[in-house]
Design brief:
Helix 1 (2-28) runs antiparallel to helix 14 (270-298). The chain has 15 helices and no strands. It has two domains: 2-87, no CATH class; 88-307, MetI-like (MetI-like fold). It has helices at residues 2-28, 33-38, 45-55, 61-74, 87-122, 127-141, 144-158, 173-199, 202-209, 214-226, 228-243, 246-251, 257-266, 270-298, 300-307. Helix content is 78%, strand content 0%. The radius of gyration is 24 Å and the shape is flat. The chain has 308 residues and is mainly α. The longest helix is centred in the middle third of the chain and has 36 residues, at 87-122.
Length: 308
């Protein structure tokens, strides 16, 4: 608990630094926010001045910075320049679709990556190892848009097994496979390397000499010690998914935070960009904290070292 509290407190300076960078970058980007809001509509200088005052753009930079940090801590980023709607509401409307895709991709990545990695790692340099690593390498190498279009053509159009665009669980299958294959490839390769290293350790040979079954040796002893590096990779990939699988969302015509962020950057919708980046960085930091805390749950040695 003490370690967890220290790590939670350590999140504060990280968020402070990232949010400061976000604010600085948004100030450097050229373009007048008032002109972006007006979108070419003629307006007098008085109207423009009043709009700048309403947005707080006429205040000193330091005051705007402190206001941004205070509002960011409260989750308030004002209104979008383009839609004139609250940024928090816009993000909340798209967050559900992104979380669904992230969860679906995570399930595919864990099941497929762990299975391929275990099969390859338990029989290194065999035909099973070669086959599993070839599949993993293909998942990492093939572009997401190509995989998505291939899945749409084969399973959506030719075989008609699943709907191509749907808001239900069935409509989530193909997008989840598309993003999950990429994550599963790297996950499987890391599981393979970790399990090979774990199976060569003395404690595994001792467990086998005691008469334990191979499945018990692998699952209870080897896998538990080998899973920490793959979990680290998985935590990073989850954070990337929450930031948005932009290509996959566009291929399957799905809403999501990734597509929203790209559109906001192209339209120079600064409040929406700030809100999305702030929420994404916060999610990234929190997920890495959760992964860090899981180390102690999985490996007692890590827990003992933290208590020392």
């Amino acid at each position: 608990m003490r370690y967890a509290l220290r790590r939670i407190v350590g999140i504060v300076p990280v968020l402070f630094c990232t949010w400061t960078i976000v604010f600085a970058v948004m100030q450097i980007i050229p373009g007048d926010p008032v002109n972006l809001m007006l979108a070419g509509v003629p307006a007098s200088e008085t109207v423009r001045a009043n709009e700048r005052h309403r947005l707080g753009l006429d205040r000193p930079l330091g005051e705007r910075y402190v206001t941004f940090l205070w509002r960011a801590a409260q989750g308030d980023f004002g209104d979008s320049y383009r839609s004139r709607q609250p940024v928090t509401r816009l993000i909340a409307e798209q967050a559900g679709a992104t979380l669904q895709l992230a969860a679906g991709g995570l399930v595919v990545a864990v099941v497929l990556g762990l299975g391929l990695g275990l099969i390859a790692g338990l029989k290194p340099n065999s035909w099973r190892d070669t086959l599993c690593m070839t599949i993993a390498l293909a998942g990492v190498s093939m572009p997401s848009f190509w995989i998505g279009m291939l899945l749409i053509y084969v399973f959506g159009m030719t075989l008609a097994w699943v709907p191509i665009a749907s808001s239900g669980v069935m409509g989530l299958i193909l997008p989840s496979i598309t993003v999950g294959l990429f994550i599963a490839g790297g996950f499987a390769r890391l599981v393979r390397a970790s399990i090979i290293d774990a199976m060569a350790q003395d404690y595994v040979r001792t467990a086998s000499a005691k008469g334990l079954t191979r499945s018990r040796v692998v699952l209870k002893h080897a896998l538990r010690n080998a899973i920490i590096p793959p979990i680290t990779l998985l935590g990073i990939q989850i954070a990337v998914l929450i930031g948005g699988a932009v290509v996959t969302e566009n291929v399957f015509a799905r809403p999501g935070l990734g597509t929203m962020l790209v559109d906001a950057v192209l339209n120079k919708d600064l409040p929406l960009v700030q809100g999305l980046v702030v929420y994404t960085t916060a999610a990234y930091v929190i997920i890495n904290l959760i992964v860090d805390l899981l180390y102690g749950v999985i490996d007692p040695r890590v827990r003992a070292e933290r208590l020392a």
